[in-house]
From TrEMBL, chain A:
This is Pimeloyl-CoA dehydrogenase large subunit. It comes from the Bacteria. Residues 231-394 form the Acyl-CoA dehydrogenase/oxidase C-terminal domain. Its EC number is 1.3.1.62. Belongs to the acyl-CoA dehydrogenase family. Residues 125-219 form the Acyl-CoA oxidase/dehydrogenase middle domain. Residues 7-121 form the Acyl-CoA dehydrogenase/oxidase N-terminal domain. Keywords: FAD, Flavoprotein, Oxidoreductase.
UniProtKB/TrEMBL annotation, chain B:
SUPFAM superfamilies: Acyl-CoA dehydrogenase C-terminal domain-like (SSF47203), Acyl-CoA dehydrogenase NM domain-like (SSF56645). PANTHER family: ACYL-COA DEHYDROGENASE, ACYL-COA DEHYDROGENASE FADE28. CDD domains: ACAD (cd00567). This is Pimeloyl-CoA dehydrogenase small subunit. Its EC number is 1.3.1.62. Residues 228-374 form the Acyl-CoA dehydrogenase/oxidase C-terminal domain. It is an enzyme of class 1 (oxidoreductase). Keywords: FAD, Flavoprotein, Oxidoreductase. It comes from Rhodopseudomonas palustris. Residues 123-209 form the Acyl-CoA oxidase/dehydrogenase middle domain.
Length: 396, 380
């Protein structure tokens, strides 16, 4: 047992760190530091830089542009990316639909979609959740009916992150209404420019508009856009969600935020001295740092285990990562609220464009706190994660 | 980076777990607790036979040259079985002082007895008002000729009654809380002027309050630098904290397994109570707490060998915080999920809770170590 990185791993970490230091556009980095949302252009600019370096789709098989890195290298890359901070590769294309396509898709689909995901020519979004299907995803009702050489899709998806930018959406649709819940679902790729698709933004409590409702009204989709077998979509979705859980701990991001808390708490005064000198505050911060250290090591244990037993079988301990990772992210935003005190109040709507460059950073603290309530809800709520532990680990 | 055990470590784990499985069920433990020393000489002998008592000592001293990971493996197993035998005071603490700073003569005099199981030790450190401060020492060691005279009172000395030799912290110079002027001394438990009052502890072990009145010891009784022994004491106590973290993880793991087993079988309203989601989620949270503690116990294990003393102390304090919090949660919820039966002395679960509680109260509680991490500038 050796919890230290090897010499090679440290050299790799330094290389990655230096690359991010030199190449993350300053403007984008600053937005992330202040808890603001980078614009689409910011993100695409950064993704193209990563792509050019060959680091856009690091965990894909080499033949589709992946790196062949070890799980520890992937871990280091993600941590450094979050800590830089830099925008993370767009999960919907890179971590979700991409792996589904190269694992279950046709040769034609691989050729058509994978290079465009890697180069960010196509922006993907995820059509899973519906108004009546959140944690109980398999109850989804959006249906796809076969008519001639087309699927006709009707229904509604929701919580669709950044659908307003998307060129494509991957959808779970009910294709066999007679079958039992999970077994009548198919995985279909839909061009967002198709006639009959309406995107309506949902404003979240922080004032932002990163999620949307997506309506499907007799949307025609070529039959060949079905991935894998008809009515097997649930299996692909489970595969995809298994991928989602690794990296969800966001350890690097929380580390970055703790550094930010320390920096701001050294500047903001309370009772004639910096907030960081307040013993109670500092102990609360230390408690979060300790939880984070424990999480980092738990994540490393999961990562090391993944390397040993191969992918495809998510370690049930990864549910620990989701639960603790989200709790810690939320705790860091709470600490930022404590630092800022009364100046949390002034409200300023942040747009997704660059028109708010000059905005005071204080205006982002409360929205960031509000926004981060989502992290214990999405990606399988923390209660669903407890159900997973209950069944998969404890055998209850 | 590698979390796997080596082949030898795996064999060690199997053998210590096997030994405890065959000799340390809950009923046997009750019997051992009633023996004269409060633990079993017979079991201790088996530990010696298996080489557990010589584990951390270099081969030239008759040991096995094992490291912190091996100690972690053993301590976790001891925690699983709720072992009463004085492994911590004898092998980890006294053994730690001897192996880290003992003279060749001291090692030759004391290690064989530890390794073959014929001698046990105790660490006489706590004083009436010292609480968690290892440098708060009023017991004195005054120079007399070549040797020393020890005077003072020590409290809650684990295995203090049964021990053959006491490792005593005493002040050779300076004021009560000065960092300098604290030394470490070996005192024979039957030396003239040593008076011991033994009693049971809350978690079923035994401890003693010990008074030293004009106890004369030789020049060869001092371990390390008598004028500046605190860094050594801190290092060895960090070894002990790290070992306690591993023991606690073993106890948490066993508490969780026992509790999950119980809620699978206990029926109310016609169904196993483990079918209720409110209890399932509590058990899931116990699992999360145990895994977080396990990660930090591993961190502490690595940290025990850090070169930088500040970094080491910070890391081990962080581990003690996590283990303290997790242990309290797992312990309390184990009782809660057992319901009334968890309140009885007869059921084993309460004994795990009590041990976890006492581990938190040993060598700095959660609040103390949180302050240490905070004052140390955190971990990031």
């Amino acid at each position: 047992m050796d919890l230290n990185f090897s010499k090679e791993e440290i050299a790799f970490r330094d290389e990655v760190r230096q690359f991010f230091k030199d190449n993350v556009p300053a403007k984008t980095r600053q937005k992330l530091v202040e808890g603001r949302h980078p614009s689409k252009d910011d993100m695409v600019e950064w993704y193209r830089i990563l792509h050019k370096k060959g680091w856009g789709v690091t965990h894909w098989p080499k033949e589709y542009g992946g790196t062949g890195w070890s799980s520890v290298q992937h871990y280091i890359f993600n941590e450094e990316l979050q800590a830089a901070p830099a925008p993370q590769p767009l999960a919907f294309g890179v971590s979700m639909v991409g792996p589904v396509i190269y694992t279950f898709g046709s040769e034609e689909q691989k050729k058509r979609f994978l290079p465009r995901i890697a180069s960010v020519e196509d922006w993907w979004c995820q059509g899973f959740s519906e108004p009546g299907s959140g944690s109980d995803l398999a109850s989804l009702k959006t249906k796809a009916e076969k008519k001639g050489d087309k699927w006709i899709i009707n229904g509604q998806k929701t919580w669709t992150t950044l659908a307003q930018y998307a060129d494509w959406i991957f959808c779970l649709c009910r294709t066999d209404p007679a079958a039992k819940k999970q077994s009548g679902i198919s995985f279909i790729l839909v061009d967002m420019k198709s006639k009959g698709i309406t995107v309506r933004p949902i404003q979240t409590i922080d004032g932002g508009k990163e999620v949307n409702e997506v309506f499907f009204d007799d949307v025609e989709v070529p039959l060949e856009n079905l991935v894998g077998e008809e009515n097997k979509g649930w299996d692909y979705a489970k595969f995809l969600l298994g991928n989602e859980r690794t990296g969800i701990a966001r350890v690097g991001m929380s580390k970055e935020r703790i550094r930010r808390i320390k920096e701001l708490a050294s500047k903001v005064e309370s009772g004639g001295k910096p907030v960081i000198e307040d013993v109670k505050f500092r102990e609360k911060l230390a408690a979060v740092e300790i939880e984070l250290k424990a999480l980092e090591l738990t994540q490393l244990r999961v990562v090391a285990d993944e390397g040993k037993h191969g992918k495809g079988k998510p370690n049930p301990a990864s549910s620990v990562l989701k639960i603790k990772g989200s709790e810690i992210q939320q705790a860091t935003t709470e600490l930022l609220m404590e630092v800022i005190g009364p100046f949390a109040a002034p409200y300023d709507v942040h747009g997704d464009d660059d028109s708010n460059e000059t905005m005071d950073w204080t205006a982002q603290i409360a929205p960031s706190y509000f926004n981060n309530r989502k992290v214990s809800i999405y990606g399988g709520s923390n209660e669903i994660q407890r159900n997973i532990i209950t069944k998969a680990v404890l055998g209850l | 980076m590698d979390f796997d055990l080596s082949e030898e470590q795996r064999l060690l784990k199997e053998s210590v777990e096997g030994l405890l499985k065959s000799s340390y069920d809950f009923d046997s433990r009750k019997k051992y607790a009633k023996e004269k020393d409060g633990w079993s000489r017979d079991v201790w002998g088996k530990f010696a036979e298996q080489g557990l008592l010589g584990l951390p000592f270099p081969e030239e001293d008759g040991g096995f040259g094992a490291g912190a990971v091996e100690t972690m493996i053993v301590m976790e197993a001891l925690g699983h079985a709720l072992v009463l035998e004085p492994y911590l005071p004898t092998v980890i603490v006294a053994g730690g002082f001897l192996r880290r700073a003992g003279s060749a003569a001291q090692k030759a005099a004391h290690l064989p007895g530890i390794i073959d199981g014929s001698k046990t030790f105790a660490f006489a450190q706590l004083e009436k008002n010292s609480r968690w401060d290892l440098g708060d020492v009023t017991t004195t060691a005054k120079k007399k000729g070549d040797g020393w005279i020890i005077d003072g009172e020590k409290f809650v000395v684990l295995n203090g009654e049964a021990a053959d030799t006491l490792v005593v912290t005493a002040r050779t110079a300076g004021g009560q809380r000065d960092r300098s002027g604290v030394g470490v001394f070996l005192v024979a438990a039957d030396a003239k002027g040593v008076s011991r009052k033994g009693y049971p502890t809350q978690d079923g072990q035994r401890a003693a309050d010990i008074t030293f009145t004009g106890v004369e010891i030789g020049a060869d009784a001092v371990i390390g630098d008598p004028a500046n022994g605190l860094p050594l004491i801190e290092q060895v106590v960090d070894d002990a904290r790290s070992a306690l973290c591993a023991e606690a993880v073993g106890a948490m793991d066993e508490s969780l397994t026992t509790t999950v087993e119980y809620i699978k079988t206990r029926k109310q309203f016609g169904v196993p109570i483990g079918s209720f989601q409110v209890l399932q989620h509590r058990a899931a949270d116990m699992f999360v707490a145990t895994e977080q503690a396990r990660s930090m116990a591993m961190f502490a294990t690595m940290a025990a060998e850090f070169d930088d003393a500040k970094e080491r102390a910070n890391a081990i304090s962080a581990a003690k915080v996590q283990v303290g919090k997790s242990g309290k949660f797992v312990g309390q919820q184990s009782i809660q999920l057992h319901g009334g039966i968890g309140m009885t002395m007869e059921a084993k679960i309460g004994h795990y809770f009590k041990r976890l509680t006492m581990i938190e109260q040993t060598f700095g509680d959660t609040e103390y170590h949180l302050t240490q991490v905070s004052n140390g500038g955190g971990l990031i």
